[in-house]
Amino acid sequence: MKRQWLFLLLFTATLTLSAQERVFPLVKDYGGIFDIPSATMKPDPTQVYKIVVDVYTGAKEPTELASGLNNVARMLNLHVVGGVPPGKLDVVLAIHGGATFSVLDNDSYRKKHGVDNPNIGLIKALKDAGVRLTVCGQSLLGREIPLSAVNPDVEVATSMLTTVSTYQLKGYAVFKF
After folding, report:
1. What's this model's pTM, rounded to 2 decimal places?
2. Which of 3, 105, 119, 177 might form a disulfide with 68, Cβ 3.0–4.6 angstroms?
3. pLDDT digits over 23-49, tens only?
4. Regarding the domain with residue range 22-34+47-176, which homologous superfamily does it belong to in the CATH classification?
């Protein structure tokens, strides 16, 4: 009887969680997450979260969002739903590798892929949330992308490596997406 009760309890909890709607507390329309009010491990709302993110994962298809950028939105939303005020999130992105093409302006992206850049809104939403977005100049030039083709909401950095090392030495936690 105890096993049946435990199974029923777990099954009901799973259904409740899976039926829950995703929320977007900071980055609107991107990086949807589930609020879990009963969680006992939550971020510290008094802490300033200094994070530099090595963003290297792009999209499988040109019509899809770059998963690395969308994970940044998820990370921000998770901290805010966990109680961290947006003003206590200090996040810098070091974009390179497969994510490089995601930061092209729309005209350049359309020339390369034949479709509009689906990341334009996500990039704007991240910047509006206070994220500093940088793209590796080495990745751009190595892929023969002119610096003028970069979305104006994204800064060109000397490199991803120097961006990460600079911020890591300033005490930022390093994430990789």
Report:
1. 0.88
2. 177
3. 999 999 999 999 999 999 999 999 999
4. DsrEFH-like (3.40.1260.10)
